[in-house]
């Protein structure tokens, strides 16, 4: 997939191949995060043990804003597959802009589910993948660092739904236009769903968790990510959020015609 070549970006096979590659990135980051406990202090606003001068949010938000400010200056959010968590805090790039050909509708940056992704990550995912529920004051920086990487990987995966949606819209404009005009949300959900593809993803994740989640030379050793948790995260959170992105993107698609 090459964002300078629109025809490669809207090819459903290329999109799905990219989603498969992202699985590995996400699994290895889950494994990194599994070395630490949940560390609720990282996510609490104005935690008494973790005061940040002139900032009212959580330690994670502070670190994420700083990271996005730097990354925006090196052009991260010019790329159509990257979505900032704090769009109002990002800065102008210091590198010259790349003129990506437009593949998504102009309103696409407004389809931003990062608030919900962060919420689901903190309140559900960390409890499934962490070593145990509790603090570890000496690792707050490491936890926030891996959280930022994980949130950005999950965000990229879930917002890839925009490319899937655009490819599906272009493959059957009359059908999607009708459903969009009639605000037939159920019909859109039905049409974007491909249960066979979803089943294949979940099957593959089981195998990947079996292989990557344990030391291959010590199968009886401690498991870092289990097939059950990985499948639960994808089935209940990642895939449904991807579909939400697809539907939200499609519902506005006729604005761009
Ligand atoms: O591959 C697709 O067609 C998608 O829409 C992506 C995706 C996913 O999140 O992986 C979502 C919905 C489909 O049911 C299958 C898979």
What's the mean pLDDT score?
A: 93
Q: What count of helical segments does DSSP give?
A: 10
Largest sheet: none
Structural class: mainly alpha
**Rg, alpha carbons:** 19 Å
| Binned strand content | under 5%
**Which CATH architecture is right?**
Orthogonal Bundle
Number of strands: 0
Structural domain count: 1
What is the CATH class name?
A: Mainly Alpha
Overview of the molecule:
- The chain has 257 residues and is mainly alpha-helical.
- Helices cover 58% and strands 0% of the residues.
- The chain has ten helices and no strands.
- The protein has helices at residues 6-9, 12-33, 59-73, 114-129, 140-159, 161-171, 173-181, 185-192, 195-212, 227-251.
- The chain is globular.
- The chain starts with 5 loop residues before the first helix and ends in a 6-residue tail after the last helix.
- The model has no long low-confidence stretch (mean pLDDT 93).
- The structure holds prephenic acid.
- Residues 16, 19, 164, 192-194, 197-198, 201, 239, 242-243, 246 line the site of prephenic acid.
SSE layout and pairing:
Elements: H1 6-9, H2 12-33, H3 59-73, H4 114-129, H5 140-159, H6 161-171, H7 173-181, H8 185-192, H9 195-212, H10 227-251
Helix pairs in contact: 2-5, 2-9, 3-5, 4-10, 5-10, 6-7, 6-10, 8-10, 9-10
This protein binds prephenic acid.
Task: List its salient traits.
257 residues, Chorismate Mutase, subunit A, globular, binds prephenic acid
What is this entry, summarized?
With 257 residues, the chain is mainly alpha-helical. It contains 10 helices and no strands. Prephenic acid binds next to helix 2, helix 9 and helix 10.
